[in-house]
Amino acid sequence: MTATMMTATSAKTTCPYCGVGCGVNLTLPYSANEAVPPVSGDLEHPANFGRLCVKGSSLAQTIQSDDRLLTPMVGGHPVAWESAIKTVSAKIAQVVKDHGPDAFAFYLSGQILTEDYYVANKLAKGFIGTANVDTNSRLCMASAVVGYKRAFGSDTVPCNYEDLELCDLLIMVGSNAAWTHPILYQRIAAAKKQRPNMKVVVIDPRETATCDISDLHLAIKPGSDAAIFSFLLSDSVQAGILDQGFVANHTNGFKAALAQANESTPSLSLTADFCEVSEQDLASLVDWWRDTAKTITFYSQGVNQSSSGVDKCNAIINCHLATGRIGKEGAGPFSITGQPNAMGGREVGGLANQLAAHMDFATPGAQDLVQRFWQASNMATKDGLKAVDLFQAMEEGKVKVVWIMSTNPMVSLPDTAQVRRALEKCELVIVSDCKAHTDTTAMADVLFPATGWSEKDGTVTNSERRISRQRGLLPAPGEAKHDWWAICEVAKSLGFQSAFSYQSVHEIFAEHAALSAFENNGRRDFDIGHFSQISKAEYDALIPVQWPVPEGRPEGTKRMFEDGRFFTSDGRARFIAITPSFPKSRASQEWPFTLNTGRVRDQWHTMTRTGDAASLAKHTAQPYVEIHPKDAKRLAIKDKALVRLTSPYGEALLKAKVSRAVALGNVFAPIHWTQQFANASVVSNLIPQVVDPLSGQPESKHAQVRLEAVGGICYGLIISAVPLVLSDCLYWCQVPSERGYHYEVVWPSGQTQASLKLIDVGQSQDLAEKAEWLEYSNPITQQIRLAKLVDQKLTLLIYSHPQPESLVADWLISKLAINTSLSAQDRLAILVGIPANLEDKGDIVCSCYQIGSKQIEKAVTSGVCSVDGLGARLKCGTNCGSCLPELKRFIPTVAELSV
Amino acid sequence: MPSLISQSEKRRLVIVGAGMAGSKLAHDFEKAHGDEYQIVLIGEESRVGYNRIMLSSLLANDISDTEMPLVDTQKMQEDGVDIVSNDPAIKVDLKNKTILLASGKSIIYDQLVLATGSRASVLPIHGSSAPNVMGFRTWSDVDVMTQLDGRRSVCIIGGGLLGLEAAVGLVKRGHKVVVFHRSSWLLNRQLDEESAELLLNRLEQMGIEFRLGESPESFLQTDDGRVSHVVCKKGEKLSVDLVVMAAGISPEIALAKSAGLKTDRAILVNEQMQTSHVDVFALGECCEFDRQTFGLVAPIWTQINVLMKVLVGKEAAFVVEPTPTKLKVSGVNLFSVGKIQPSEEDSCILFKDVSANHYRKLVVNGGLLVGAILYGNVADGSWYFQLIQNKTNVSNMLDLLVFGEAYCCPQVA
After folding, report:
1. Distance between CA A419 and CA A478 in Å, rounded?
2. ipTM above 0.95, yes or no
3. What is the reported pLDDT for A3?
4. pLDDT > 90: what percent of chain B?
5. Going from the N-terminus, what domains does chain A have, and what CATH number goes with each?
6. Chain B residues touching A829 at Cβ < 8 A
7. Reduced to 3 states, what is the DSSP secondary structure of residue A797?
8. What is the count of residue pairs from A and B with beta carbons less than 8 Å apart?
9. What are its GO biological-process terms (chain A) (predicted)?
10. pTM of the entire structure?
């Protein structure tokens, strides 16, 4: 335990990004003026054993933000905490009194800690009396939860990360783990390298970086996933690989499920037709499935974010139950969560359709049990409103106070216009956040400044049920407070002093643990009773452990269901009869393109944290839409050109990325860009509020849209020493930069030197008479480039050109407002974009070492013929490794070489 | 010393005019064909074979007398070239192939080259022939200017290359200089308005006063005939000690004309530099080819190369190519070549950094660079000149062209 002890200057903590939950070593700088030194991976953490992806590696860069929310705000004015808390509690009390408890709601986040979640859930469900506690986890894994619960009677992830390395067949469905869960992907890639016989199959409409290690990629028709597993179930019987003993002794409902599967997917050819894949490819998967007992099905948002997400999950689980491939080493249905603590939220019951500690309102005796444990004064008695329903109720005026914590629903929920209407209608919108400016804080009546990663203290649970500590090392800036503290203060102000008078966060964890064990007796999967008396010292020294951790089993539990016993009333797992179905929105003449959404490699969610790290913006600087070359040609859309996407719900402006990675008629757009980073690129504008009827999870990966090239425009680059309001731009995107402000913009065409020079008028402190302008104009290429110098220092740079250009702006940014005046060569070079002697790196591929495509191409041309060789030459790919799939594509194949 | 009229076995090449063109031709020809030719070089100035281009630098005190020679006249004489100085030719007898010098000497030639150069144009203003009105063409002109003592007021008429070089030289010597220039901007044949503005600022900083768009109305003369005042348009009178005429040059063609050679603005030559008479050639500022005359050194060197062959019966032809212009003023860098006033079908690529006195304008037509003005940083001048000369297609480098060779051809950077 000594290794995990926290010292004053360093701490072992857990990464705040994806659901892999990697251990991170955080160190304080020598003095307060210095920047936090780069973090490193925790060698002892079982999730990552010392590795970190590029996002995790860049954590230190995100600690100093110039946009921290530092004081409570009411109505746009800073106030003391005491006053803000009074305002909030008075309004909650009034609304509950006048309209009932359901007029209040929490909208939480998979990024807050388990302890924050616990007190929020307790306050709402036990004391205010509403189950309106939902969370952005609804958007990422609600379907997986319901899938597990339908099959196992509990929300239990059976597998662990080791199983990924031990399996012989890994079926990855709807997951681009190479980018979204890079460390797991690297563990898988390393295992496959060691055991080349291990098969990896990717089922995804898109050819993603994850396909790089796959033996087979099934580019299915979007949303058709369930049919594959329906057919695998049928085939398992025909192929004689059914585990009859397991089915007979440990399951119910097999016959009905099989009958439905036989009806839905009667043959391989019909299944292949349905999914629009080749019979041969499907047959390969079937063969491997038949032959491979050690099979893991690894699934993520591509499965969950669907109007039939729960059914897809159960179609997968059915196959594992039928073949007994569960509760064994290297086998099982493995849902991977997207957030650092979606699992912790599930554990405390921080969802509207849960009560607490893996108990539901419908669980017999649960309400009474929880009421007694909490000594609750006003227990909720029924499910609350799930995310989309919650915001619809808000628009209808039924929910009058909402407390949003650590999430950005103005960007992440579907149909942003509806979300805006709802928040506008809501009488009191409280937002707790680290950041002063997000699309959601802009809608708030009350802002609570929250502590962030590196300041917060508590626990998180990763995708393999492993509870790890996030440890606070840095002091809270300004008036920022922990979320649990703010919730407790409001609770106390509402009159619930005795239930919320925690002195320290470990007391909350101990209570949470005690509830999990309270009258459990092995009936509930989630039991961490071992920690119910945990002391502060023990809590501070907590090492990562997989739940359940019941009293007497401090080592936790590696794998679930090894005894074939499930948490249903009869202890048997349930098969669910599945009818594969397509997404709700269908292509039409008016909305011909199917939009799929997802992530880019180096950004996280709505960029509120990764947006602070300039190096992370280099892989993908601007919001884009991937479109097939034939579609692009037909619509006269050029690569990198501005494209307008329209759906019945709204529109978004994105840059075209012409690529064969998407199928004809399909487009893909990443979801990260908010209005803080781009004026018109919020992809959720386009998404309908279609949800899975069981999980309430939105079908965010599917919308029908129209595309058009935007005409009459010119493209531009602006680098400014001060932030600019770019109201004349049709499109702007602020690209995080090491210094100053870097904007990629699109103007209506017809810009002149005179009009461009007015861009910062009234926004910069520069005196007009002190400004010198450097000018470049080229009527042939229609380029205009302007640089403004004040006291010989660069303060503003404007490039305008009719065609989209991709200029690596790093060097230009490095010249911004530096303290020495520009050299004669630089005065010319700032209008070129690069100094004459600087190597043009091309697009950055390796973010860790900032190695670009042109450097890699050069190395390959000079004879480097392996990824390892590139690493030796340029160091690329040798740190976090998340660029390895991309690096591999630079290496010519044997066939190409022989030509 | 061999007799000037000595009979020789060798063919006789006589060159009239010992300026740069004549001296260099004599020098080069002696080296190449001295065995077969007797070369006679005739000059009207007392000093011959000097580098006229350096007069501006000499006036500005940037160089000394020792750096003036273009060719080593002593060595040439040792090698057998007859050099006649301070004795202008006054008559050519084409029929008898003889030349009469002012001293009365007569010289026989087999082949004659006229390199009589040009003189400063004299404006039709009354008093232009006054003793303190001079041109800026010869070493002795510089002598006059350098002998001016104290702080004198000098009026220079003409803001072209020569006028500005004289102005800078004189202002550096402590004189008060006013330049009259008829056009609304300086060097209007080499620069556009914006680059001329940069030049104007620079020269004004040096202390030169300018009157743009203005020519003197008249001169006021004292009883001894000297000009005492220059009268401006609005009647303003500027007191002057010296007037320098630098409003263009006129080819010196009197000798050719009197001999009966065909002339227009200058002596007409064909592409072999041959005049209307078979054994008579002309080159330099006094010749006219294809309706053009030549004031810059580069085409004249080309003419020498052509003549070097033609005179010995080899084939060669002169072709007019654009010639870059530079101003020989230390601290002022400008470069101008080709077509600098664009017509409608041309496009201008501009780079402007006014506060750094850096300006570039490229005139492009149909994928070809046809003209360039560089001010401030002229390092790329020769590259642009090459692109123009070689008619290099620049279509694929238009977006970087104005930034120079280092950007467009990184392999040479």
Report:
1. 30
2. no
3. 42
4. 75
5. 2-62 (2.20.25.90), 73-134+343-502 (3.40.50.740), 142-335 (3.40.228.10), 593-709 (2.40.40.20), 713-829 (no CATH), 844-898 (1.10.10.1100)
6. 403
7. strand
8. 62
9. cellular respiration; nitrate assimilation
10. 0.85
